[in-house]
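Quick one before lunch.
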Amino acid sequence: MRTDTIPTISRHDYQPYPYRLPHVALEFDLDPLQTRVSSRLEFERVGNVNEPLLLNGQDLVLESVMLDGQTLAPQAYRLQDETLTLFPTKASFTLQITSLCKPADNSSLMGLYVSGDKLFTQCEAEGFRRITWFPDRPDVMSRYRVTLRADRMHYPLLLSNGNLLESVDLPDGRHQAVWEDPHPKPSYLFALVAGDFACREQTVKTHGKRDALLQIYSDRGSEPKTQWALDCLIRSLQWDEQRFGLELDLDRFMVVAARDFNMGAMENKGLNIFNSAYVLADKDSATDAAYRAIEAVIGHEYFHNWTGNRVTCRDWFQLSLKEGLTVFRDQEFSADMLAHDLSGAEAASARAVKRIDDVSTLRIAQFPEDAGPMAHPIRPESYQEIGNFYTATVYEKGAEVIRMQHTILGETGFRAGIDEYFRRHDGAAVTCDDFVSAMESVYVQRNPGKNLDVFRRWYSQAGTPRVKVDLAYDAEAHTCSITLAQHNEAVGIERLQSPVLPKPPLHIPFALGLLDQQGKPLPLEHDGKAAETVLLELTEERQTWVFENIAHKPIPSLLRNFSAPVIVDIERQESELILLAQHDTDPFARWEAVQELATRQLLCLTRSISDERQSDIASGLTETWKRLLHDPNLSAAYKTRILSQPTEKELLEKTSPMDPAAVVKAGKHMREQLGRALAPDWLDIYRATSGNDDAYRPDPLSSGRRSLHNLCLHYLMAAGHPDAQPLAVAQYYDATNMTDRMGGLSALVHFSDSPQRQEALNHFYEQWQQDPLVIDKWFALQASAPGATVETIKSLMLHPAFSLRNPNRARSLIFQFCMNSLQGVHTPEGYAFWADQVIALDQLNPEIAARLARAFDNWARYTARNREAIRAALQRIQQHPTLSRNVSEIVSKALK
Ligand code: 0A1
Ligand code: ZN
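Model of the O-methyl-L-tyrosine complex:
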């Protein structure tokens, strides 16, 4: 499709649907080659005048249309490319439509598709229209009754949303199941699954003493790997009852694992469909990180049952209403699971580990997005293809915007706001503004005369604001003034407007602490209370706060717990950062100080590499690192975060122009130097953290220990320490769980070119070739290794286990290389390879292709050499004659 013919949909053009559709009955004659879908839709006019009735459909063959029992002649309706329009003359009527779709030909994995020998659906955002003609928009909510018929031998299990009403055998070797969902829902939450599955199940009592049957379905043979997912689901139910008072509203809740899936998982009502990567785990095949990811995704989809399904989005511009809120909820769930059984500083440190990981994700994925051609507010203003707006901005920044409301209102205030939100909107399709209004009803009670008008701008402003901090100390008056000034530069299409309009200030909750020169926290008076951390609410461009009774010039600890998604600018001495690194009582800000120290060093190295100068790392950094490594009060999980270098991608964002080659060299140099300078320490800690992993558990304590163990090994390998390689080899072969095994293997793959590297890779493949999720790791590791080149990737693509059609496999090899192998991809051949793959993937799966197409969104900020080569590659993609709407939108925005 050509860019100029793709319509742009604008938020302001929203019109309510002119009909209600309270009841939907669907009948499926399932067959992978050709499935017949018959629908019975009972419409009721909303207003008093007859309006055209518009239905969406895509890649369907229309067989018949009946209105109130009468077959319509083709002249009685208008059938266009992707719409079917009828012209009803009555206030209520029944439409019956029969159509065909072809699941086996559907490589987009949207709508009804085949994965292995099974059938699955994916309807969000606009996949239902590939199943049948329908008002495929989230504000049309209906009760569904679904009849599924299929061959009994190939599809012994037939699942859909809600409750099973009937299951009968039919005479011709087929069988039939009838499902009814008691809850009205939009079409994007519809699901069906057909095939042969193993099931693990458990019945639990809800808070209200109802029985709920929880089921995890997976490929036969993989049932030993579903216990963790079921445990996570049970904990999700309990957590949502305890923390939010939200109880499961179904008798049966099913999770089904699919091998081919575009995203992580999908919250279809009562029938969640998951990428198998977020369901299957056992100690031999899954790493600690995979266990945690499963917990997060199981939680996320379960929490959608209220935030997304009971209250849904009025239109797709409101996507962050459900996604931002649900990401916030899953982040809190994971943090609570990490801090379980802990209290005080230990609990705070455990929660900080999760916060650090989430903020790192935000900075790596969302900050660049917010500075590039795809920059958009968390509630976008327009789109060409909604599939392109399942972004880090809508999800991760959206969660930060919810978190700020939590920070401003506090836990009890936020809970009161959530209660009010459900009281007002349960069962409805609403907007982001409705959510803020519910929160505001609590805010105004507690802050008479104030409101959230300024806060609402977070929903309409793109870009990462910068907050400049100035500290002025008055030695005579013993006062310390803190001035915060905010600025949010024009980004994305805003820059193309003339004149470029300045953006009004935002409501920024800014958590601050002050330390004395010895690093002791100072009690601060604010809003009539004394506390170690105060929350400054910046609502104007510039504001000053004065703190009294401060005996000496203090050291500020800024944006504690990352209280707002902003960039802080402050001029400060390295000695202040070193003090914060040792003493800050806020574990997030402490980590941040160490990261800032390391970033400064890395940027300095990058510059010296660009100027071809030799440079060593400062002793202050190694000493700080050493002290932290031996600090008995820090948990292993926290130490792993605080002693990890900032990633290449974070650093790249901070270079101008962006110079991938220099960034890679600087990172390597620093790792080597830190490895060498602290070699005896890494070795000691490596030994001290080897555990008896016969009794493997993915609990926070032991997984923290394993992460530190692996970090030590990496530094030792980077340093070329003589003991490192034998340790890595031994760790790889002797491991009794996948975390240790991967730690050993990745140390070899990343840092060694000895024959043992290839031997271990071969051994790994031999051992695990039957397990696709493990083989994904095998591909990913090689694709992201520093030495990976286009040739490496092309030869791996010829491996019999590679397929472009399976999203997990494409992600593990192609995406890993294009997005994470800075050294390999930032070459003329790398860019050409990337363009070829975007084009090839686009013919199969536009959603996945469009994600790959975003690899170099920020191409205009690279050094001239890289810039020109990327532009040429982008132009080549754009000129391809059969580009999808998805990829077309991405490349045309990148080239504007
Ligand atoms: N709502 C899901 C995300 C999702 C979106 C689109 C999909 O298909 C293209 C699949 C899943 C979630 O937030 O988990
Ligand atoms: Zn979600």
